[in-house]
Design brief:
Distance between the termini: 58 Å
Number of strands: 12
Helix content: 25-40%
Bound molecules: copper (II) ion
Order of helices and strands: HHHEEEEEEEEEEHEE
Length: 270
């Protein structure tokens, strides 16, 4: 019993302490840090789960009932009936209605995410085999973001999730993310913000988020992209407006983008 409480409180406390990354023994989603993710979690927990549980319990009950009620010893002469119009109409209509009940709020959330509000800042994420490159087009900033190897991890840096150069964004601001790739398909995904978009070479996808809480948020490439697919994490640090300005002034120097220009073309380089 004591052990059970330790495990229970262990899970409960760790989930609170490290709210923005997966934890051992976790069930369910990572804690939401944006309005869209809160809506997704509510849709799943309050609508989908009850429906799924009710259907599973109902089907289990039907199977057990049929096993007992129509077993050979209790029902020696089985019915030869093959059709029943009422039952057939019901088992077609009721699932349709259940699907409609699920589809309406689901589309509402999808369309809301699809409309990008006026952005306060724009970042561009570029997938490479196997790391992410970032640009802040309005600030002339460009840098690469590599996973930190296990042997180089510092305290509080999660394994397979921490990176050397994090994306830094201000809290409570609409961040528009342009997503593309340079070689193969990747996907830029951050569970706490409810964001996931494919990074496709030769085209730009876009998404957005508005982080509500200061903190460090972790995601991973979510499209199988090759041998080191599991080693190109995404780290976004959400900071206050002042800290962001401070970071910007440093980053403008440290990560300044140079443009190599000749009479034929203009290339960005780090
Ligand atoms: Cu990838």
């Amino acid at each position: 019993m004591k052990k059970f409480f330790y495990i229970f409180f262990g899970i409960f406390l760790t989930q609170n302490a490290f709210a923005n990354q997966p934890v051992d023994w976790q069930l369910g989603f990572q804690n939401a840090a944006s309005e869209s993710m809160r809506e997704i979690v509510a849709f799943h927990d309050k609508l989908l789960l009850p429906i799924i549980i009710a259907i599973s319990v109902f089907v289990l009950f039907l199977m057990l009932y049929a096993c007992v009620r129509f077993r050979a010893s209790a029902n020696p002469n089985p019915s030869k009936r093959t059709h029943n119009v009422t039952v057939e109409v019901l088992w077609t209509l009721i699932p349709c209605l259940i699907l409609i009940v699920m589809a309406v709020p689901s589309f509402k959330i999808l369309y809301k995410q699809d409309t990008i509000p006026k952005a306060d800042l724009t970042i561009k994420a570029i997938g490479y085999q196997w790391y992410w490159g970032y640009e802040y087009p309005d600030e002339n900033i460009m840098f690469d973001s590599y996973m930190i190897e296990e042997k180089d991890l510092k305290a509080n840096q999660p394994r397979l999730l921490a990176v050397d150069n994090e994306v830094v964004v201000p809290v409570d601001k609409v961040v528009k993310v342009l997503i593309t790739a340079n070689d193969v398909l990747h996907a830029w995904a951050l569970p706490s913000f409810g964001v996931k978009r494919d990074a496709v070479p030769g085209r730009i996808n876009e998404t957005w988020f508005k982080a509500e809480k200061v903190g460090t948020y972790y995601g991973q490439c979510s499209e199988l992209c090759g041998i080191k697919h599991a080693f190109m994490p995404i780290t976004v640090k959400v900071v206050s407006e002042e800290e962001y300005e401070e970071w910007l002034s440093e980053a403008r120097v440290k990560f300044a983008k140079e443009e190599i220009e000749n009479d034929k073309l203009k290339i960005a380089s780090k």
